[in-house]
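Need residues for this backbone.
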């Protein structure tokens, strides 16, 4: 199992970035996928979940309305589109596979916040004011 993030960088407040998580080593739609982030001195925060089998998504309050998660199943890729970035969004962003495999409708809602055990290496997002 391998998850590889890319797309991080430095942007101005109000700017946008799109993160990519490339997944390999298992059947793509057999698990949901979550994005997490960790800012310096803060606990890791789960910010989104997507269940590829049905397209269900869920977001934390801190990013809802600004971030959008989507999947490109034929390429085993999950995207996190981040718009209207704020200084508080500065963090290392990780994609992660949940502990439990997809088990049916409303997976993200049922298991939020999702517990994950397979992680990417992370990608840094810096937001400058």
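Answer:
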């Amino acid at each position: 199992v391998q998850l590889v993030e890319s797309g991080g960088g430095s942007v101005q407040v109000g700017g946008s970035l799109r993160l990519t998580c490339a997944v390999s080593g298992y059947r793509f739609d057999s698990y949901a996928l979550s994005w997490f982030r960790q800012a310096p001195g803060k606990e890791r925060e789960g910010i989104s979940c997507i269940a590829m089998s049905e397209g269900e998504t869920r977001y934390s309050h801190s990013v809802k309305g600004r971030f959008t998660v989507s999947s490109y199943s034929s390429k085993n890729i999950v995207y996190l589109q981040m718009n209207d970035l704020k200084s508080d969004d500065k963090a290392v962003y990780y994609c992660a596979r949940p502990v439990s495999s997809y088990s049916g409708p409303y997976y993200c809602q049922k298991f939020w916040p999702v517990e994950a055990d397979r992680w990417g290496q992370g990608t840094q997002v810096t937001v400058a004011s």
